[in-house]
Design goal:
The protein has 285 residues and is mainly beta. It has one domain: Immunoglobulin-like, CATH 2.60.40.420. The protein is 10% helix and 42% strand. The radius of gyration is 19 Å and the shape is globular. The structure holds copper (II) ion.
């Protein structure tokens, strides 16, 4: 018992020694999202500067870190700020206003910073991005996966209502890009060497279920926001529900170029054209 206690105390000391204070600032910006076929749709994103970028900024912190987040709303309407699977971090930020949020996460996982007002409309409209909490020292890739329906974005931008039972998205993106642009994003493009341990964070901030299929490999589930019982399962296809997330681990044992795509094949299209959707390749050397 005493040994157990001292081991526990020791591990507490080790955890607190690693924890850091992280300060970050995100801007809420309204702008135009450009699709793979050069359509534009209204969009609102969390960005790292006051310039609109359709690629949401993602946050990465260690387990036990204290995150002091400043949120600056450059939009002309108020927005909500909330974090999935937490309590006590819910607030709002007025048009042109700034708010701060202090939070801490004590387990490896992914939480989604999002706008909870008119839910899920604004979260769908772009205001949803992962906060990855992981002390993993190797290569971490992170995919914010999403789908888009032009008419829904037009309607939300004009303060209209949308009928989710009629949702029929025509664009599918990872970190704001469709194939082939996904492959130019170092946060999305999985690259590594045989024997490396790679982690791939998958966060679905859309409103459709996405089923991600890895060719050539099985990956181990390190974290599942939806079902903790799935941890340690090794599979090649992973369903990710809306506003849910997974951390997957891959230790490649062979070289090659391996496709990854959404097994729901409409999600590999963009504006009806294949393969301009959720598709990338992993490069193992
Ligand atoms: Cu496949």
């Amino acid at each position: 018992m005493r040994k157990l206690l001292s081991t526990l105390l020791l591990s507490l000391v080790v955890v607190s020694a690693q924890a850091a204070v992280v300060e970050d600032t995100v801007y809420i910006n309204n702008g135009l999202f450009t699709t793979v076929d050069s359509n534009t749709l209204p969009y609102t994103a969390f960005n790292s500067s006051s310039t609109f970028d359709q690629q949401n900024t993602q946050l990465f912190i260690g387990v036990g870190d204290s995150l002091y987040l400043t949120i600056i709303n450059t939009d002309t309407q108020p927005h909500g700020v909330d974090i999935t699977n937490t309590t006590g971090y819910t607030t709002t930020v007025g048009a042109g206003a700034t708010t701060t949020l202090a939070c801490q996460f004590n387990q490896t996982g992914i939480y989604i910073l999002h706008d909870h007002l008119n839910y899920p409309d604004m979260a769908y409209f772009g205001l949803s991005t992962p906060i990855v909490v992981d002390n993993f020292a190797g290569s971490i890739f992170s995919w914010n996966i999403k789908e888009h329906q032009l008419s829904f974005n037009d309607s939300i931008q004009n303060n209209g209502t949308v009928n989710w039972s009629t949702y029929y998205p025509e664009y599918f993106t990872i970190n704001g890009n469709s194939n082939p642009a996904i492959n130019a994003d170092p946060l999305a493009k999985v690259t590594g060497n045989v024997g490396d341990t790679l982690r791939i964070c998958v966060t679905n901030t859309g409103q459709s279920i996405h089923s991600i299929h890895f060719h050539g490999y099985h990956l181990r589930i390190v974290f599942s926001s939806k079902d903790a019982a799935h941890v340690d399962r090794e599979k090649d296809t992973f369903s990710v529900y809306p506003m849910e997330s997974l951390i997957l681990e891959l230790i490649p044992d062979k070289t090659g170029e391996y496709p990854v795509h959404d097994h729901n094949l409409v999600a590999v299209t963009g504006g009806g054209i294949y393969p301009n959707g959720m598709f990338l390749t992993m490069i193992i050397q």
